[in-house]
Amino acid sequence: MKLENESIFKDIIDDIKEDLEDTIKEDDSEFKQGKLLAYNEILSNIQRQLRAYDLKALGLDFDIDEKILNNKDIKLDAKDYNF
Q1: Do the beta carbons of residue 69 and residue 25 sit within 8 Å?
Q2: Fewest CB atoms within 10 A around its CB: which of 4, 13, 46, 62?
Q3: Three-state secondary-structure class, residue 80
Q4: Contact 56, 66 (CB under 8 A)
Q5: What is the pLDDT of residue 72?
Q6: How far apart are CA 63 and CA 31, in angstroms?
Q7: How many domains does the chain contain in total?
Q8: Does 1 fall in a domain?
Q9: Could you give the 3-state DSSP secondary structure of residue 65?
Q10: Which residues contact 10 (CB under 8 A, 6 or more apart)?
Q11: Which of 16, 14, 15, 20 is nearest to 36 (CA)?
């Protein structure tokens, strides 16, 4: 199925992913951990809402949890948060 205004969605997703990559490079801090959790939620929600469309064309054809939460270079400890 073709997404109307696909290029706008792709641009927004690319901007979010670029900001995420910059955040991953930051020194570890509670603020960084909060930002990473927020990026995880944002990208997961977008991916879920657009699952009927071509996720590869949108740049969302990856496991978001693996990229953010399970990344060995990122120190997120879920027990520090009240989920």
Answers
A1: no
A2: 4
A3: helix
A4: no
A5: 55
A6: 23
A7: 1
A8: no
A9: helix
A10: 57, 58, 59
A11: 20
